[in-house]
Task: structure prediction
Amino acid sequence: MSLLAVQGLTKFFGGVVAARDVFFTIERGEMVALIGPNGAGKSTVFNMIGGQLRTDSGNVLLDGEAITHASPQERFRRGIGRTFQVAQAFLSMTVVENVQMALISHHGESESLWSPARQRHRDRALALLAQVDMAEAADRLCAELAYGDVKRVELAIALAGNPKLLLMDEPTAGMAPRERAALMALTDSIAQARNIGVLFTEHDMDVVFGHAARVLVLLRGEIIAVGTPDEIRRDRRVREAYLGDMHVLQAPLARPA
Ligand code: ADP
Ligand code: MG
Result:
């Protein structure tokens, strides 16, 4: 049984179809990229899986159970995590405090770090930070961090919920190319180690083709191709869909295999 099964998801905004009859599955430990031009419907699909957006029709199954009408909180409790930008209010806290807050929230405890709660989950938070190579920055203020480091803290915060499935809608937005590749490589290794399924979208095709086991291509709300990175690179419809943006696919193609 698949970790996630998306079955015929459809969403209209007025007369515009943002997603139409979208089907796919994600297995445990599998990194899947959802790609497509701007406005293709990627965020719409993410939000219907995360529960932020109601579906017009279709179903979402997690471990075989329908969660189509569950709230985002219920989906989070069942193991769907997503990366969110560190909220402005949290920039005034230290790196480890941000992760402690996420652990406190995950355990349904009251959200206070006043003493004696200061030490609560600190060891677990430090272990999560070590996984994203941020243990040394634990006691620095989030506000002082470089952008790429904030993104790694966001990943640690998402992992604090102990997800089975991680949704990452443009996790590397605003990052330099080298940082993008590093963040996705880190995500990839953590997902493998913890057997987490990951659905992500990313504009850098080198990163997509380097880290996705499978790629789904969305165009005007419809999945037009599914395959391994090699299959997608060679797919005629995909190349046509990206004609306006041909460099996107040419760059990786130009390299020797
Ligand atoms: P992507 O993430 O691939 O760029 P989106 O899912 O954000 O695409 O958008 C898909 C389509 O749905 C676009 O035409 C967009 O304008 C439209 N859309 C998305 N969200 C809304 C909304 N809340 N209200 C109206 N139209 C929306
Ligand atoms: Mg989007």
User: Anything to note?
Assistant: The pocket of adenosine-5'-diphosphate (ligand 1) is lined by residues 13, 16, 18, 36, 38-44 (CB under 6 Å). Residues 250-257 have pLDDT under 50 and may be disordered. The radius of gyration is 19 Å.
